[in-house]
Specification:
By secondary structure, the chain is an alpha+beta fold. It is 17% helix and 31% strand. It folds into 2 domains: 89 residues, Alpha-Beta Plaits (2-Layer Sandwich); 75 residues, Alpha-Beta Plaits (2-Layer Sandwich), CATH 3.30.70. It is built from 4 helices and 11 strands.
Length: 167
Amino acid sequence: MRDTVFDLLPAKFSRLFNIGRLDAQTEGLLLITNDGELAQRLTHPRYKIQKEYEVTLDRPWDNALAPKLLRGIFLDGQRATIARLHPLSPTLLRVVLLQGIKRQIRRMFRAVGYRVKHLVRIRIGDLRLGDLPRGRWRALTQRDLECLEGRAPASRGATSQRIHAQG
């Protein structure tokens, strides 16, 4: 049986909800909370919360394919779209999603002829992963919570009951 992000947390954290998922090949920001209302607000598509990723491709990106990903590709009977796509280098892109279909980024890039070599979620809403090491977690600050609720600009502090982990 494979370890999960919950195996990284102290036993005192029980009855938690994860906000979004990361597959076994993806790493980065994962929010975990005991606040079901917050989890609903951050995951339900009607709230259009941005999730930003750094995507490393197997070969240089052809920007002529960007409109196809922005218009959308059908996955599991629904149109999967990328809200924003920004090249950082020939093989490294920043991608923003407003929806979360299973393995969406990998499947969309595969549909246009690319293989995703590395995928990291770096932001949910206005909260950024920052320099939190892989396999570590920290409690969110009050400012982080206000940021997630859209009431304050992002910060990188620590301490509260809600946590995020990189796995």
